[in-house]
Amino acid sequence: MNYFIHTYGCQMNVHDSEKIAGILEDLGYVSFTDVKDADIVVFNTCCIRETSEKKIYGHIGQLKKLKKVKKDMIIVVCGCMSQQDGVPAKIRESFPYVDVILGTSNLAELKDAILQAKRKRKYTNTNFCIYQEEDFNQLRTSYPNAWVNINYGCNNFCTYCIVPYVRGRERSRQMDDIVKEVEQLVENGYKEITLLGQNVNSYGKDLGGGENFANLLHRLGKIPGKFRLRFMTSHPKDLSEDVIDAVAQYPNICNNIHLPVQSGSTEILRRMNRHYTREKYLECIEMIKSKLPDVGITTDIMIGFPGETEKDFLDTLDLVQKAQYSSAFCFVYSRRKGTPADLMPDQIPEDVKKDRITRLIATQNKVTREISKQMTGNVYEVLVEGTNPKFEGVVCGRTESGRLVNFKGDASLIGQFVNVKIEKSASATLWGVITTEEK
User: Fold this and answer.
1) I want to staple 172 with a disulfide (CB 3.0 to 4.6 A). Which of 17, 151, 232, 359 is the partner?
2) CA 249 distance to own-chain centroid
3) What pLDDT score was predicted for residue 134?
4) What angle do CA 150, 154, 157 make, to 5 degrees?
5) pLDDT 10s digits, 309-322
6) What is the pTM of this model?
7) Domain coverage including residue 389
8) How far apart are alpha carbons 16 and 80 in whole angstroms?
9) Which uninterrupted H or E stretch holds 15?
10) Contact call for residues 428 and 372 (beta carbons, < 8 A)
11) Alpha helices per DSSP H over 74-146
């Protein structure tokens, strides 16, 4: 029996799909690369943007004919999209051949849901419940990388964001459980471990006893062994100097901070309910760079938020040049039903959005190219993560600061740390050669 998992969206969903895979493997199913031959198809969904939802609905619709032929095929829809109000009913009406619908906190029910589906019984549950990470026998699929949840949900309620409504309020895992999981991953040979949370900097606020993210980093930084530790995502309003001090203290915590700014305009940040100003954000950037030499700072930037003027946009371009991000995920604001921003006046016309996103990407690309030029000729330690499917005999990996590097090699190098001398750059991508030179 075969299964196929469609995973959409963020790293949190990638990790959730590893939990789904573990459940399916326990039931005797085997991963398969062709959806047409699958006995179970799982859609682990995202709803951060409308385009994501349209794509997912299209993919579900493509299975209608296949389901008529393979009547015993089980189709599961889970994740953020199915957690939204009204979506389960819409799926049931538009795609009656879907067997199981689960919300973001119901993955532990997947086994029972599948067993019911085998008896031709539909299963739907999107009620919020609390589960433990230890409830899952995870099938990790990202070696040499591993993902570790440290908290779930979000309390920030940015006016454009659906996440708090579909992931729930913040819930932190016990620190001892996190440390134990990371220790086990290091013992099992994983080389890069990424701590996940919608806002990792608020970790521990709901636990009491003074536990916080900086303390967690201190405990994880003391774990022996050759491995890297990353974390995402940080919220600027909660990123403390203590966290950056912890990053600076431990060699195995990467000098790479992902700090979404969203906008360079204080007025737009206020409308977004981000709880910081342009000036405070730039002060935070300055603090990070003063403590972490050669740090790679990445970000998320949204253009076209309701009410964004040309001046607001120019403030964003100016901030990009001041912050000197190594890379940025730039995207256009997308209306999300159920969020305050959806009801705001002064929605930005599509042609204006298109013009601004083009200018923003061009500005960031120029910054990235300059940083890439500065790295040329230097030696960096790179963790080999995989082969590059576009080039024969080429592998790729990332520097500590998060920059992607391509160089000659084969699959036997995956999971190894090698020193690479950068020979040339192509915007965000670096090209190099393995060297015996020290970094």
Assistant:
1) 151
2) 25
3) 65
4) 160
5) 999 999 999 999 99
6) 0.90
7) 376-434
8) 11
9) helix 11-26
10) yes
11) 80-83, 87-94, 110-118
